[in-house]
Backbone:
RNA sequence: GGGCCGUUAGCUCAGUCUGGCAGAGCAGCGGACUUUUAAUCCGCGUGUCCAGGGUUCGAAUCCCUGACGGCCCA
């Protein structure tokens, strides 16, 4: 649609031509600014801007930003100039700028502009820069989104996030909070003596979680590789090697559906601590989340989807068995196999197919009947072994493992266990997973990783491990309803852009 | 994978039920205006009504298929 595009930008094209005729470079390489808008205004408000004398003798400022408003008044113009800190008003007068004012006639909303001048306060009370010189920094060839209603079209907001950031002032703070959340978690762990590592994204076996992987191919090695679905087994190899406290914050990939709290790639924190167990990890999670909330929000009470959630420790602790019994009335002990449990769930109106494994049924029961009630932070403890192939069994009951998940705002935000370090039992658990996969074709199970078993055979100390979904934690802290609002570029179905696609690499 | 809803100007949206000249605000274009700030005043409507097919004298509107998005369910 070249004609249409040209029409949209026709007058901007003409202005660009006129600028070039005036020998103005519309894309100069640099503009040395002396202050951000915020710094400039703060400086003025502190009364240090030398507010005596005329514009030739006062302190000069050089500021820059995007033009977000234009109010022409004959031989003068007001502009709103927005940089990453705030808006600053610019006043342009023909009698001061002289020939420099010609540029003003060729400016548009969205252009990037530098201004040098002195600061003053207008009659209306706004701190404003009186420009003695203006420099075009970049001509915008397309108009920005509408200023008053903002950009609402969610498709454009996600596909062209830069427009969302430009038009909607409440977006940047969410991603600032995200950045600080990650920074705080990192320093929390570093302060506790953890070492941060990077483990492979491309792996020969997609193990460590129950999820379908993305598949790719390495040409030189001529072999199939997978994008990791977890970092777990590599981090535990490092525990074997003697890195007693280790963590990774990284992207993992799961080839699954997209909904309010699932994006196919998401950011996961995993940490492992030798000689700790899941009770130690539980205390650390409470501490860490409260510390992060304090740093990011200045308090531990968060507003999330109409609820006030108090993240200060200690969090409620309840066994998974108790929680399911309380919220559904089902005593899962009485239904030790998939058939009887599925039948009981159907009897009580919970949808359950007779082709689901017991683990999957329990997961469904948890997700549909328990999770939505867990608004205040809660640890659900002690999961059935079939849901947790990498966790160590409880000493007094081999059907349950030392595992907890943390919930808040009706979302799962953390998953942790006392790690299974008996190589023979681990092998057996993996084999059970492979057997379940054969039996329940449609479901995701963990995969046997022979190389990991070899590592375990060298001896892994008793270890407490943890995974936290950072995206969901940020949702909780920033009050967002969907994961798409805390991921800058969420996955969307691809759309025909009319451009020729690059050739497919041969498979 | 299934159901429901949506897609109209650069942006935000009316118009669709009940078929009859394609609309508004902001943005834009032309003009006036040297302290405005959603500037104001005068003039101008800029369009592949998501795409394709069908019904009809006539379709943004009704029907079918598809794409993309949203919500709910799986």
Residues:
């Amino acid at each position: 649609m070249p004609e249409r595009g040209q029409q949209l930008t026709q007058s901007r094209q003409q202005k660009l031509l006129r600028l070039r005729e005036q020998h103005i470079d519309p894309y100069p390489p640099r503009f040395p600014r002396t202050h951000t808008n915020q710094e400039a205004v703060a400086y003025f408000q502190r009364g240090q801007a030398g507010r005596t004398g005329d514009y030739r003798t006062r302190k000069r400022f050089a500021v820059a930003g995007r033009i977000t408003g234009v109010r022409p008044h004959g031989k003068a113009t007001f502009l709103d100039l927005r940089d990453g800190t705030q808006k600053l008003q610019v006043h342009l007068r023909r009698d001061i700028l002289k020939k420099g004012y010609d540029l003003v006639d060729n400016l548009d909303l969205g252009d990037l502009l530098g201004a040098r001048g002195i600061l003053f306060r207008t009659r209306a009370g706004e701190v404003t820069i009186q420009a003695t010189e203006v420099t075009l920094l970049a001509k915008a060839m397309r108009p920005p989104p509408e200023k008053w209603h903002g950009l609402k079209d969610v498709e454009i907001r996600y596909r062209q996030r830069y427009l969302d950031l430009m038009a909607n002032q409440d977006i940047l703070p969410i991603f600032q909070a995200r950045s600080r959340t990650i920074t705080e978690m990192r320093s929390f762990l570093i302060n506790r003596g953890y070492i941060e590592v990077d483990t492979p994204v491309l792996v020969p076996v997609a193990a460590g979680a129950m999820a379908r992987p993305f598949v790719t191919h390495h040409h030189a090695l001529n072999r199939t590789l997978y994008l990791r679905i977890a970092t777990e087994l590599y981090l535990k190899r490092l525990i074997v090697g003697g890195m007693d406290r280790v963590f990774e914050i990284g992207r993992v990939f799961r080839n699954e559906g997209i909904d309010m709290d699932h994006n196919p790639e998401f950011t996961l924190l995993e940490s492992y601590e030798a000689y700790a167990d899941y009770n130690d990890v539980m205390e650390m999670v409470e501490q860490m989340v409260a510390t992060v909330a304090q740093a990011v929000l200045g308090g531990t009470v968060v507003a999330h989807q109409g609820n006030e959630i108090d993240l200060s420790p200690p969090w409620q602790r309840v066994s998974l068995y108790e929680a399911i019994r309380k919220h559904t009335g089902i005593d899962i002990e009485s239904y030790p196999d998939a058939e009887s449990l599925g039948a009981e769930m159907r009897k009580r109106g919970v949808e359950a197919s007779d082709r689901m494994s017991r683990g999957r049924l329990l997961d469904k029961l948890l997700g549909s009947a328990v999770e939505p009630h867990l608004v205040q932070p809660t640890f659900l403890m002690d999961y059935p072994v079939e849901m947790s192939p990498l966790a160590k069994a409880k000493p007094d009951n081999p059907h349950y493992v030392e595992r907890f998940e943390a919930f808040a705002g009706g979302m799962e935000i953390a998953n942790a266990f006392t790690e299974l370090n008996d190589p023979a039992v681990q092998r057996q658990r993996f084999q059970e997973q492979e057997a379940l996969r054969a039996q329940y074709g449609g479901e995701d199970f963990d995969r046997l990783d022979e190389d990991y078993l070899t590592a375990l055979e060298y001896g892994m100390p008793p270890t407490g491990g943890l995974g936290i979904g950072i995206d969901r934690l940020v949702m909780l802290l920033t009050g967002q309803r969907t994961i798409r609002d805390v991921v800058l570029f969420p996955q969307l179905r691809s759309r025909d852009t009319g451009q020729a696609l690059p050739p497919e690499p041969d498979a």
Q: What stands out?
A: Chain A has two domains: 4-144, 172-315+376-492.
